[in-house]
Specification:
About 30% of the residues lie in helices and about 30% in strands. The protein is an alpha+beta fold and about 210 residues long. The strands form two sheets. The protein has a seven-stranded antiparallel β-sheet with strand order 3-2-1-7-6-5-4. Strand 4 and strand 5 form a beta hairpin. The radius of gyration is 36 Å and the shape is rod-shaped.
Length: about 210
């Protein structure tokens, strides 16, 4: 278990069960007294048990964590690492079953149960907002909501370059158009164009004495 924990990016602690009791963990080793877990908060579609923000025996119940159990093993998860987003203000992972549980991320994006009609992909180009529930882990859903300010901070250099190119193109277009119109209105152009199209003719105005 310690080898597995060492190689894992997303697990903080691993425990082993025997006869329904936690008998050892990677940090504490073999427990003096087997430990019986409290009933889980919910089960996923794969029958994995989840405890959300539960006190950790490892830290004498002074810290909490998300624990998942499958078969005879459980693991304390690093939820920020599992989801893989750098800013916890932009996303929220929830369990949206018979009871609502905030699992990780920003707890204020979704504060209560989401009805079935709202469990749809929501994609907007400028806000990058979407809501998605996993098909295997039924009722486990993720919402991402990146606001315009965060998008600007991520892409401000590209935006500055785009504005510079637009201004340069506008200036060049103005110069070309101005020179073209000035040339067409010049005396030289009008005379040359008139000669080319036989627009000049001789007009005699006799002088009366």
């Amino acid at each position: 278990m310690r080898k597995t924990l060492f190689r894992s990016r997303f697990v903080k602690e691993i425990g082993f069960y025997e006869d329904g009791l936690l008998v050892c963990s990677t940090y504490l080793g073999i427990l003096d007294e087997p430990f019986k877990e409290a009933p889980p908060d919910f089960y996923t579609g794969l029958n994995d048990a989840f405890w959300i923000n539960t006190p950790l025996k490892l830290f004498e119940a002074q810290a909490t964590g998300t624990i998942v159990k499958r078969g005879k093993y459980n693991a304390v998860l690093n939820m920020d690492g599992v989801v893989g987003f750098s800013s916890s203000q932009d996303w929220q992972l929830i369990y949206n079953g018979e009871q609502f549980y905030h699992i990780a991320g920003n707890p204020r994006l979704i504060e209560s149960t989401v009805n079935k009609d709202e469990q749809q992909y929501i994609n907007r180009y400028f806000s990058l907002t979407f809501f998605m529930c996993d098909e295997r882990y039924s009722n486990t859903c993720l919402k991402v909501q990146s606001d315009e300010g965060r998008l600007f901070s991520l892409h401000n250099s590209k935006l500055v370059l785009f504005i510079f190119i637009m201004l340069t193109t506008a200036a060049l277009s103005h110069m070309v158009t101005f020179n073209y119109l000035r040339r067409r209105r010049s005396i030289e152009y009008r005379i040359t164009n008139g000669l080319a199209h036989n627009k000049f003719f001789v007009s005699i105005n006799p002088l009366w004495i």
